Amino acid sequence: MKKHLFAAAAAAVCFTAASAVDPAAVLMTVDGHDVTVGEFEYLFKKNNTQQQTPQSLDEYLQMFIDYKLKVADAEHAGLQDSPELMKEFNSFRADLALPYLRIQAVEDSLVEESYNHRLADVEVSHIMFPFEIQFKHTADSIRGLIESGQITFEDAARQYSYDKRTGANGGKMGWVVPGRFPWPFEKAAYDTPVGQLSDVVNSRLGFHIIRTEQRQPSKGEVEASHILLMTRGLSDDQLPAVKERIDSIYTALQNGADFADLAGRFSQDPGSARQGGSLGWFKHGQMVAEFDSVAFALNDGELSAPFTTAFGWHIIKRTGHRGVEPLNDDVRKVILAQMKNDERAGAAADAFVKRALVQHNAKIDKDAIARIEAMIAAAPGGYDSTMVAQLKNDPTVVASFDKGKVTLSQVMDRVPGTRATSAANAANLITSATESALSGAVLDYERAMLAQTNPDYRNLLNEYRDGILLYEVANQNVWQRATEDLEGLAKYFMANKANYKWDQPKFKSYIFFASSDSVLNLAKEYADSISPAIPTDPTAFTQAMRTRFGKDLKIERVIAAKGENPITDYLAFDGSKPDADKKSRWAAYSAWHGCVIDAPEEAADVRGAAITDYQAALEKEWVKKLRKKYKFKVNDKVFKQLKQEESAK
Fold first, then answer.
1. 3-state SS assignment for residue 368
2. How many Å apart are CA 275 and CA 279, to the nearest integer?
3. What is the pLDDT of residues 26-81, one digit of tens each?
4. 577 in a domain, yes or no?
5. Phi-psi region of 35 (alpha: psi -120 to 50; beta: other; left: phi over 0)
6. Residues 165 and 232 in one domain
7. Interatomic CA distance for residues 362 and 438, integer angstroms
8. What pTM does this model have?
9. Are residues 154 and 230 in the same domain?
10. Which site from 85, 90, 394, 425 is most exposed, i.e. has the minimal number of CB atoms within 10 Å?
11. Backbone torsions φ then ψ of 444, nearest 5 degrees
12. Same domain membership, residue 246 and residue 195
């Protein structure tokens, strides 16, 4: 239910009061609620950044009082208890708290570590095992055999690796491209010293034993184009012809032929051929090894001799090179985007929770867990649905911290659904859920404390809460009422009719569009029977006509001056008949009860302007009532101090 709020709570800029007046001082009391200097100044400064003409403190004070009175009215109407509004508010509060409930230094460290990988090129070999827990034990055993010298890494790769492509080459994988591999694999590759084995690594794709082969300063990136003549799938008899063609292309290039032209005409790599052979920028290790070594060995502007890869014959033209980009905002954004999708995603938040658990002396009552396990073991049905129901109503405290406790009944809300298991396994499930519940309780406490300890957070949170309440109460008293109160709108228009004028006459009518002349005539007859004059309730009239004629009739209410609408020009101002739209399903049209009028006759004739003015009148009357209904008082001494401070700036 995201809505336009009076107070734009999701603004990116926070305005922390830097006032000489104590931000905690009470500036005013509205309906028994104190408003501090800090809250007032925050909204005053924010308001003035959004206004073309900044308001003075005196002007803003009156608007602010009205704002708080409307919020008070919303609270008296019970809108703060609306499940829909509270769901929206709680969602915003959770999102708003996220940047505060994390350790930024942890994220910064991970970003720096990831960036440092870009500064070095690392070549690795690996042995891969499937991602099932039993293969972890196999991987550990194979690693032990390699370490003890009972089998070479290369032989182990050939015999055991599930990566058959690299296994056939003794596990040789090539150069690691940072950001292109799962993070645990990349981290192990860079952390493992040259010539040594990593521990068994779980990359979510499988288990790996990694051996780091080489490490060198990064070669950066090169920009190159190529021409490819495919040899894959060809017979031995066909290969000489391909070699002859690539040699002739190379000779033409040496004689000054345009590389992009020949690439577009002859290269069998369709993606790059359409770009004149351009491959753009690529890092060391992104291309197959033979291609990579040639591209990085060339000088800028240099042309390679024909050479082969598993794909076929290539000619490369290197067009540029560049070093590693500095760790700027753009690079940081790329790294953060990668982190959001791997194991590092929650590291900063997890570190915050871990620290908070220590700070708040959080602990699990192991004796209580043991008693619960014993109770499950002694029960006739063990850990069955009856026992689960009993545990869900058990108030036993199983964990605590210095500001609260966690009961078994709370923990059981986090335990997976009932399933038959041993008492020991049930105790493990409950222990795991207790750890989760304890972390959640400590995090909830920290989130609640933010409103007391962080002014920026508190101001944004209050602004958002007041904003959603204000929207709802204003909608009920002003905006929605102005559009639905047709009688009130009509009375307002008649009382202020002189304020609504036109520069030129307008044609006022309903226009019927019909699928045929016969339907059009029937529609006009039926309309006359149910509404001899222009209907006072256009919505009811239109609905009645649609019910009677369905898709064979379309009705438009129009008010248009000459030159504003070709159809009304034809029907009322002696204009030429518009050419028929051959794709239109409306074969006939006619005005019903049409007439030319010099000035608006009813609110519907100037609906937009009338509703806007009526809303302003309703708002003015509403505020007038609120100022009588609820008590408010400004601390003149504090406000005077604020004015003196503002004038001194």
1. helix
2. 8
3. 999 999 999 999 999 999 999 888 888 888 999 999 999 999 999 999 999 999 99
4. yes
5. beta
6. no
7. 7
8. 0.70
9. no
10. 90
11. -60, -40
12. no
